[in-house]
Design goal:
Helices cover 54% and strands 11% of the residues. The protein is α+β, with helices and mostly antiparallel strands and 213 residues long. The chain folds into two domains: 22-94 and 203-209, Glutaredoxin (3-Layer(aba) Sandwich), CATH 3.40.30; 98-199, Glutathione S-transferase Yfyf (Class Pi), Chain A, domain 2 (Up-down Bundle), CATH 1.20.1050.10. Helix 7 (164-172) packs across helix 9.
Length: 213
Amino acid sequence: MIKTIFLSYILILGYSCSEAEYKLNYFDIRGRGEFIRFIFAASNQNFEDNRIKIEDWPTLKPTFPFQQLPTLDVRQGSETIVLAQSKAIARFLADRFGLNGENEIEKALIDMYGCQLGDLADSTLGKNLTKEQLDEILHRNFKFFEDRLIKNGNGFLVGSKLSWTDLFLSQLMDFLEKTKDEYFKNYPHVKALDEYVRELPGIQEWIKKRPNF
């Protein structure tokens, strides 16, 4: 089994990105799947957005790796590999679409920031937090990323071009909804990055057509 998966992965790496077909499997919500959808959108890459209904999940759950979502089906020729874990999926796609830095140091920093953004999502989404608790978490994280953007000096978190963590940071702003501007008052560079991402043609098109929830 392991050998089969490994060989499938090697075969996939041998194909160009344009020859691949992608299917993202996730619930019919934004949650932990939306920033992956942002990666596809920003890269102008087609994918099948397979939205699984909550009521169907108990039956389907045993058929997915680790019995969780999201997963990504990558089909190239007669070979298909299924990837699980949202950040592993993000790294795979970012490597393919040029969103994962130019060298090992940049990739390590991008990965570090992506892990922190994942922790931020895990500590806030779906949690019963008071406004004071939410404020503390958000301001602590926004300050870190604001300082990083100032230090990098070009509008991106790492290097000299867009990365998947830039997309991840912007996409998380979805969950602030109408309170986003309140938090942005003290973090103009985070605000500028969010605006840059949402002005990308692929992201604009995606936001227009995605479900409004």
